[in-house]
Amino acid sequence: MQRRLMTSSMNNLDKLVAYFEKFPGIGARQARRFAFHVLTLPPAEIEELARLITSLPETVKECERCHRFFATSQSGMLCGICSDYNRDHTKLMIVERDNDILPIERSGVYDGLYFVLGGTVPLLENKENNKLRGAALKSTVTHTLSEDLTEITLAFVVNPDGDNTARYVELLLKEILTDTKVTITRLGRGLSTGSELEYADADTIKNAFINRG
Amino acid sequence: MQRRLMTSSMNNLDKLVAYFEKFPGIGARQARRFAFHVLTLPPAEIEELARLITSLPETVKECERCHRFFATSQSGMLCGICSDYNRDHTKLMIVERDNDILPIERSGVYDGLYFVLGGTVPLLENKENNKLRGAALKSTVTHTLSEDLTEITLAFVVNPDGDNTARYVELLLKEILTDTKVTITRLGRGLSTGSELEYADADTIKNAFINRG
Amino acid sequence: MQRRLMTSSMNNLDKLVAYFEKFPGIGARQARRFAFHVLTLPPAEIEELARLITSLPETVKECERCHRFFATSQSGMLCGICSDYNRDHTKLMIVERDNDILPIERSGVYDGLYFVLGGTVPLLENKENNKLRGAALKSTVTHTLSEDLTEITLAFVVNPDGDNTARYVELLLKEILTDTKVTITRLGRGLSTGSELEYADADTIKNAFINRG
Amino acid sequence: MQRRLMTSSMNNLDKLVAYFEKFPGIGARQARRFAFHVLTLPPAEIEELARLITSLPETVKECERCHRFFATSQSGMLCGICSDYNRDHTKLMIVERDNDILPIERSGVYDGLYFVLGGTVPLLENKENNKLRGAALKSTVTHTLSEDLTEITLAFVVNPDGDNTARYVELLLKEILTDTKVTITRLGRGLSTGSELEYADADTIKNAFINRG
Predict the structure, then answer these.
(1) Is residue A67 one of the residues assigned to a domain?
(2) Which chains are adjacent to chain A, needing at least 3 Cβ pairs under 8 Å?
């Protein structure tokens, strides 16, 4: 006895579930639970959730200089970091994604500016992808920061794609950084918190030994 | 050098992230990614997502008889299962949650009606919780189904809370099922797909042996 | 600077590590740790460990009837279960491996005898493998147990290979069980401890519904 | 029907299983499988395994200088690394365990000598434990290596216990390294292979930034 599923007529519920399924990391079952969760919210909260989603594009601007998202409650076209005169404008750190910035800020170790590249250059396809902000990076470095800049730090994931992205960015920066004294650095490699020698890979041990001190 | 985080002014973005953090199974980091995901959607999709959320309470009704959610595009106050005359109205299966129904329907083994209890009765707090639909169950069994009903199957999670819920429902049904010939059954227990004897717990082995055939 | 590893001369240590690497589930690193662990034992314990290993074949006999291993401190050629007159000699349970018996004994639900088949018949190679004790099973059932036997329970893993093994054993038993009243049963299937309906596969739900009661 | 387990008489098998259960990382079930695995070995291999275990203490010596284990097939009281004149005797690396050395050798980055400390000094108990070779370390550094030594690298796990051990060893070395020009270094910290900024902890990000280059 195989019966037709009873969901054929659930148009709007199914549509919402389909949206939730496209959320990063969410499968069909959890998407359905999200919809049931929304159903349990008080009407006022459902309204506010929808309003916050609708207004998100106006709520959030992309910073003209570093291209991270920031709340439009701030005036101007620059985010809170780019417009903060107390930060060190001689340093620029290039990261892949918006989400990389928060942990660096939390560590309290870095006081300079950022640039969100928007992606990596995978090792096997050595051309710029559309979302990558290569041209914007050149423009920011050339026109906005050129006077003061002394160091650009590349902060990408430690794997072949991250290394390839670093090489790509270095080539791109060399085109525009002629005759300047900007140093290009990469984040240091070595043992990270919790690392045990017995389980460390050869590259990590090499880097840990080279960077000993 | 410990710096204040730069998020203090991101009011509406933070509010949205806070909503996403309350979605079942979602932490702070993934909630933030959800917001960035929404930002990448075309404006028309952002509008539709918000509209689907707003309209969810009107989109979905709770079935008067079995209390599962169903799309209001169906007319009437009964869901597609309760209003389907081809289903076997002599059988009722009581489940904890709406989400339990879909896998049972997919298995194709069951052709009867359902009742969504709305929760379990945890072993250590032997009183009915507010969300539990004990009174509604009595009403559905007494007034809506009483004529034809021959079997009620209890389908709860296999753990002490599920067993306690089954006992609770049995007591509740016995108050109203005097002088009728309704059988109360529970789903069978034993080895489930992939079970290996070597790793099976004693209860599962006991049930598998008792239910051998 | 790539250097030759310094292990070339560690002959006996390496040989021991190689033995430990063949232990079920053990990799190179853990095998090496085993050797270092043995080195930390007091000399008397190292001696005893070696002695226990040497004497293992004499320590342990394979039961003539059920083919499980048992300690030779017991007299006779039958294991403690096969020679226990208080057990129910009308029941036989056929399992794949020696290790399957302990959890069944621990569950306390079964009081009969066992037979260790020695493996499964994988679905894709429908011939008996060498380690499988098909002939021994026939012999045990025909000559040793035939008078009293009333039930044979097949207790294999719940997957296609286990099912195929059950079919193989049934065919084999039918050749010798003509004109007798021995029932062949299989362990019951359904929800096992901890099973939640929402995550259960269709087969498990089917079996749980069919075996309800 | 709860029956007594049938294992009471399996003395020697149980004893062997008990030995295997004390092997690092091994539970009751796997220990039992080890015994069954040994039973499947040809008699000659069982004999060799037992012989290798018995002879392990004579097979393996502890190096007088670095205290790692090495095969006694080498003549002399020094291991192959300590007695290798092609290695750089101006460098000493102090590790916690014997097993830490193999991955460092495999990385090919280090050409000096080692010292196996034998453990860590947990943060909450600031006294030397018995297995720690503090006195032996002093002796090795003072009497054996003092002439040439220019650098001692501390290579401990990256956690509070490892850091505490490094402080302990530094204090201990300072007592004997007065008026010499030996540098004490620690392995570098930063992003390790596979590290993503988004998931990195604050300490790792700090170290990665400080060690950028």
Answers:
(1) no
(2) B, D
